[in-house]
Each structure stands twice: as C-alpha cells, then as structure tokens.
Design brief:
By secondary structure, the chain is α+β, with helices and mostly antiparallel strands. It contains 1 helix and 4 strands. The chain has one domain. It is rod-shaped and about 95 Å long.
Length: about 130
C-alpha cells in the first residue's frame, strides 16, 4: 500500500476558518483604532479652539464671539475648523459645535464647544471667564 502525503479536507477547512477569524478580528480592531484616532483629532481641535477663545480672543476683546471661524479666531491652525470627515465648523453634519450664549450685539458672555465622538460621550468645553 502506498501512503499519500498532504492535507486532508478537514485540516484545510480548519486552517481557513482560523485564518478568516483572524482577518475579521484584525479589521474590527483596525476600525476601532481608526475611530479612536479620529476622536483624538476632534479633542485636539476642540482644545485648540478653547485656548484660542480664552487666551486669544477673550483676552483681547473681553467677550466671546457669536460664531467662530478662521477669520475671527486667527490664533489657531485654520485646518482645525474642519472635522475628520471634511465638514467645516458651522456646516450641517459637522462633528464640532460652537454654541454661544448670553449674547448682546454679537458680544457673548458664555459659550460651549462640543465634539461629537464615535467611541465616547461628547467632548465638551465651556468658557472659563
């Protein structure tokens, strides 16, 4: 009797199943890591806007603006006004929100900055003055 060498069909199926599970796990983890990186980018942008408002705008003017943009908040990188999906602050669907409060003639006493995150609760910064 001659013995054949090679893999049985069961062995091949088991290897394919394990390889498929490893690939699925890899891609799920990659998607989670990508979402966490986008959330970190959003937090960095909100922090930059916050410090720009507090240290730059409020210190100079004594009040907060009714809206923020790269025109009136020039102390930060203009690219930070665009969220990771490419939507600019103030446009529909942007994950950044600036909500001014207690405003009179465009001069506001309070504001809330918010980033809508994918993997955590919203990231919120409020005025400190």
């Amino acid at each position: 009797m001659k013995k054949k060498s090679g893999f049985t069909l069961i062995e091949l199926i088991i290897v394919i199943v394990f390889a498929s599970l490893a690939l699925i796990l890899f891609f799920v983890q990659k998607m989670n890591m990508d979402a966490m990186n986008r959330d970190d980018h959003r937090k960095t942008a909100i922090n930059a806007m916050y410090y720009g408002l507090e240290e730059g705008y409020f210190t100079k003017n004594g009040y907060y603006p009714e809206t923020i943009s790269e025109e009136n908040l020039t102390v930060i990188d203009p690219n930070l006004f665009t969220d990771p999906s490419g939507i600019v602050l103030g446009e529909n669907g942007c994950s950044y929100l600036y909500e001014a409060a207690n405003c009179e003639d465009g001069k506001c006493k309070e504001y809330t900055l918010r980033a809508i995150l994918e993997k955590e609760e919203d990231y919120i910064k409020k005025n400190r003055n």
